C-alpha cells in the first residue's frame, strides 16, 4: 500500500507546476488517506475503527522511518501533516527522526500543509444558480485560494473544488465578469457553508462532480476541520408551506402579468413553485435560464402527463411568471430577458412530451406520473409511431394485482418507448407483466413509480445502449429517468435476480 501511495504521489507531483507542489502533495496524500479509510476501517464501533487506524499508521511510520530515499521522506512529511489524530503521533515522530538525518530537504517540502486561512469571500450568481466560496490562504512563496462551487440547481451540492490564484485576482475576475454579488465572511462561516453542502453531496448516490472535486475534496475537508474555531452552521432554509405557495399563486394572478393568461395558469405556476422549492435551492422567485431548462425539458415532462392544450399554455405562463418574479426581486433586466428567451429554446422539448391521443381525458387535463390510481392508464399518451399502449391481460389476477399491472405495464411501455426508442416498448411491457405475475412480493421493495424506470435501465444495459461510444451514459440515462444510478442499479438487480432475466 505504501508503494501505491508513493507512486500516486509521484505521478500527481509530476503533472503539476513546481510552485504548486506543496499543495498537490497535501491533496494527493489527503485523498489517498481518505481512500484507505474507506477500504480498511469503513465499519465497526468507533473504538475498533480507531484501533485499526492507529495500528496501520504506526506500521507505516515504522517502514517510512527506516527508508532513506527522498520520495519516501516527501510522503512521510505529507502524512505526518495530514493524517487525523488517531495516526498522527507515530508519523510525526518518524518524520522528526528522519529530518535530523536527511542530507538535503527541498524548501517546498517544508511548506506542505503549512498554509494559513486568512479570509474568505462568497460570490453568488444573481440568478441564484450557485455560489462560490473562496478560501484565501496566505503564503509568502505561493499565496493561493481554494474555490468551492455549490450548485443550487442540484440541491446545493458541492460540484467543484479547485486551487485558484491569489484572492485579489479572483475578485478582479468576478468583478470583471459581473452578474455576481460578493461578500466577505468569517472563515468559520465559510467552513459551515461548505461542510453543509458537502453533506448534501454525500447524500447523492452518484453526484455529478468534477475531477478536481475528486482530487481536492479530501484536502478541503482536512483544512476545514483543523480550523481553530468551530464551523458556524448556516441558518436552516425556511420551508414554504402549501398555504404560502397558494398565496404566492394568488398574488401572481392578481398582478398585471397574469392578464389574458389561459385558465391553467394557476396550476402551472403552482408546479413551477413546487419544483423550485422542493428540487432546487433559492426559492420560488428565482429567475434563471438554467431553472427554465430544468423545469421545461426535464422535470415537467416527467412529472405530468398532459395533451398539447395544456402544454401550449406552459410557455406563456412561465414567461409571465418570470417577469413577475423578476419585478418582485428587482433583478437586472438582462437576466430576466435571458430566462424568458430560454423558454423559447426549451419549449420544443416540452411539446415533444405532449399526449398525441389523450384516451379518455379531457382537453387540457393533466395527471401526475407518480399517481397510482386506476385512472392513470387512461392518461398515457401515444408516441409517434408507437400507437396506444397495449392492454395487459388481467385474467387470473386478484383485484390488487390487476390494478397494479394496469398502471405498471403501460407506464413501462411508455417510458421505454420514449427514452430508448419504440422497438423497446414491447419488451418493457412484458417485463412489467412478468414482475406483477411472477414476483408480486418484490413490488414492496421499491416505489411503484421506480419499477418502470428500473425496467428501462435494465433494457438499456441489456441491449448495450449505455457505455463508451454508446448514445447514453449511466448518468444521462438516470437523469432522463429522474432517478439516481444507484437506485436504478439496485432495483434492476432485484429484477434480474428474482425473474432470472438476462443481465
From TrEMBL:
Source domain of life is Bacteria
UniProt name for this protein:
Uncharacterized protein
Record organism? Kribbella turkmenica
Amino acid at each position: 500500500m505504501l508503494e501505491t501511495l508513493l507512486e500516486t504521489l509521484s505521478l500527481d507531483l509530476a503533472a503539476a507546476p513546481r510552485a504548486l507542489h506543496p499543495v498537490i502533495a497535501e491533496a494527493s496524500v489527503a485523498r489517498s488517506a481518505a481512500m484507505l479509510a474507506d477500504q480498511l476501517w469503513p465499519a465497526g464501533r468507533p473504538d475498533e475503527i480507531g484501533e485499526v487506524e492507529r495500528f496501520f499508521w504506526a506500521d507505516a511510520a515504522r517502514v517510512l522511518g527506516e527508508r532513506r530515499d527522498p520520495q519516501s521522506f516527501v510522503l512521510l512529511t505529507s502524512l505526518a501533516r495530514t493524517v487525523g489524530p488517531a495516526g498522527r503521533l507515530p508519523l510525526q515522530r518518524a518524520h522528526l527522526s528522519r529530518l535530523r538525518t536527511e542530507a538535503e530537504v527541498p524548501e517546498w517540502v517544508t511548506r506542505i500543509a503549512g498554509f494559513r486561512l486568512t479570509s474568505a469571500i462568497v460570490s453568488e450568481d444573481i440568478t441564484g444558480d450557485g455560489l462560490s466560496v473562496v478560501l484565501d490562504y496566505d503564503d509568502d512563496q505561493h499565496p493561493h485560494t481554494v474555490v468551492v462551487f455549490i450548485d443550487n440547481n442540484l440541491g446545493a451540492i458541492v460540484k467543484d473544488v479547485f486551487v485558484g490564484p491569489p484572492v485579489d485576482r479572483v475578485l478582479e475576475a468576478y468583478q470583471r465578469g459581473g452578474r455576481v454579488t460578493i461578500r466577505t465572511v468569517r472563515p468559520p462561516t465559510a467552513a459551515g457553508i461548505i461542510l453543509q453542502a458537502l453533506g448534501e453531496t454525500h447524500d447523492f448516490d452518484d453526484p455529478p462532480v468534477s475531477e478536481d472535486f475528486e482530487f481536492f475534496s479530501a484536502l478541503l475537508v482536512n483544512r476545514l476541520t483543523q480550523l481553530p474555531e468551530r464551523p458556524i452552521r448556516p441558518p436552516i432554509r425556511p420551508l414554504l408551506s402549501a398555504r404560502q405557495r397558494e398565496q404566492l399563486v394568488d398574488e401572481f394572478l392578481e398582478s398585471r402579468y397574469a392578464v389574458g393568461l389561459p385558465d391553467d395558469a394557476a396550476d402551472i405556476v403552482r408546479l413551477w413553485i413546487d419544483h423550485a422549492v422542493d428540487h432546487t435551492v433559492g426559492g420560488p422567485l428565482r429567475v434563471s435560464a438554467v431553472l427554465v431548462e430544468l423545469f421545461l425539458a426535464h422535470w415537467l415532462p416527467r412529472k405530468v402527463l398532459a395533451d398539447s392544450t395544456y402544454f401550449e399554455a406552459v410557455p406563456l405562463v412561465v414567461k409571465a411568471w418570470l417577469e413577475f418574479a423578476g419585478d418582485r426581486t428587482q433583478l437586472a433586466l438582462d437576466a430576466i430577458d435571458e430566462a424568458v428567451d430560454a423558454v423559447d429554446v426549451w419549449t420544443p422539448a416540452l411539446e415533444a412530451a405532449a399526449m398525441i391521443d389523450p384516451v379518455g381525458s379531457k382537453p387540457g387535463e393533466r395527471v401526475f406520473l407518480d399517481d397510482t390510481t386506476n385512472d392513470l392508464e387512461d392518461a398515457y399518451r401515444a408516441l409517434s409511431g408507437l400507437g396506444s399502449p397495449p392492454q395487459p391481460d388481467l385474467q387470473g389476477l386478484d383485484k390488487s394485482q390487476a390494478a397494479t399491472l394496469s398502471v405498471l405495464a403501460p407506464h413501462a411501455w411508455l417510458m421505454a418507448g420514449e427514452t430508448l426508442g419504440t422497438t423497446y416498448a414491447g419488451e418493457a411491457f412484458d417485463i412489467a407483466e412478468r414482475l406483477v405475475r411472477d414476483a408480486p412480493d418484490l413490488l414492496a421493495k421499491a416505489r411503484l413509480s421506480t419499477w418502470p424506470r428500473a425496467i428501462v435501465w435494465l433494457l438499456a444495459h441489456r441491449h448495450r445502449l449505455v457505455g463508451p461510444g454508446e448514445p447514453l451514459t449511466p448518468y444521462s440515462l438516470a437523469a432522463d429517468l429522474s432517478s439516481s444510478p444507484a437506485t436504478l442499479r439496485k432495483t434492476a438487480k432485484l429484477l434480474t435476480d428474482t425473474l432470472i432475466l438476462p443481465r
